[in-house]
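Structure first, sequence second, as always.
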């Protein structure tokens, strides 16, 4: 009887500890997500966005009731790839588009009414205000990917050196995140480290990392790490090869940009430099010719 009582008490205590651990984990995850969202909002939000944020939130609450599940998911992926600018959710981003279109329409109507002409500027600014947030997000994605592409070789070298020094992959990743140069790549790796600490497997954390960036170099890096983890192979040689390949691709991309420079300089030369040179050279001759007559 006493043994059964002790068994019941012990089982209850273990169940209570397990429930407390799960509750603490979920609460900690929510606190991390909230802190990360506030960090993104403070770091990447503009003063103008902070002013109109209450209006955006009110409009987003209405948009959230609309059946736009597929578009909302597609927009969520784009915002995630752009680094969540301003900490906006998909509904808030759609509200921002509508608000920008309304503001553009109001400004265009004022201009058209002032100069008394057909509403061409109104329609143009309306369309510009509606599509400009998408253009901004696409530009942010490209800028973010270029930064990750540039930082990748240095990160791989640092990670390889820490692993060669005797650390395992998790500890080496923590050292790289703590001492590395801040940027989009380090921010994403910080999320990977946090996911692993919260109980996700290394494979799941790195696959989420690849899904957030969707870059060829990141996919190759993640695939190599997952295969090495499954086969039990050493990670150091794989990272050395990945760093060499990434550095070669970065060098090739730099060569392509350098080779494009003459073509990009041709238009400013023809439009600005050549006419000014012709004016400087031929104006005195033209003045002398007119005076001789």
């Amino acid at each position: 009887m006493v043994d059964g009582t002790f068994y019941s008490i012990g089982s209850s205590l273990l169940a209570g500890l397990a429930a407390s651990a799960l509750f603490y984990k979920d609460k900690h995850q929510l606190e991390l997500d909230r802190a990360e969202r506030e960090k993104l909002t403070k770091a990447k939000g503009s003063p103008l966005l902070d002013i109109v944020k209450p209006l955006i939130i009110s409009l987003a609450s209405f948009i959230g009731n609309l059946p736009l599940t597929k578009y909302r998911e597609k927009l969520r992926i784009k915002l995630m790839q752009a680094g969540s600018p301003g900490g906006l959710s998909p509904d808030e981003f759609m509200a921002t588009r509508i608000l920008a279109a309304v503001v553009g329409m109001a400004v265009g109507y004022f201009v058209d009414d002032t100069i008394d002409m057909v509403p061409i500027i109104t329609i143009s600014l309306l369309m510009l205000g509606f599509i400009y947030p998408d253009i901004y997000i696409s530009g942010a994605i490209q800028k973010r990917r270029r930064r990750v592409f540039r930082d990748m070789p240095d990160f791989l070298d640092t990670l390889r050196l820490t692993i060669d020094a005797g650390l395992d992959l998790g500890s080496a990743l923590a050292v790289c995140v703590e001492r590395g140069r801040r940027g989009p790549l380090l921010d994403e790796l910080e999320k990977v480290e946090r996911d692993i600490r919260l109980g996700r497997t290394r494979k799941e954390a790195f696959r989420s990392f690849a899904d957030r960036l969707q870059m060829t170099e990141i996919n190759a890096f993640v695939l190599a790490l997952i295969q090495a983890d499954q086969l039990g192979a050493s990670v150091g040689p794989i990272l050395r090869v990945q760093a060499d390949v990434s550095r070669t691709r970065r060098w090739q991309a730099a060569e392509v940009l350098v080779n494009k420079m003459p073509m990009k300089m041709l238009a400013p030369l023809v439009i600005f430099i050549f006419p000014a040179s012709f004016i400087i050279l031929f104006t005195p001759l033209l003045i002398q010719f007119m005076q001789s007559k």
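Margin note: Residues 1-44 have pLDDT under 50 and may be disordered.
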